[in-house]
Amino acid sequence: MSNNAAIVELSQAANKFRSSIVLQAENKYIDVKSILGLFTTLVGGHAYELHVHGPDADEAKKELGEIFTKHNLNVTVVE
Question: Model pTM?
Answer without folding.
Answer: 0.86
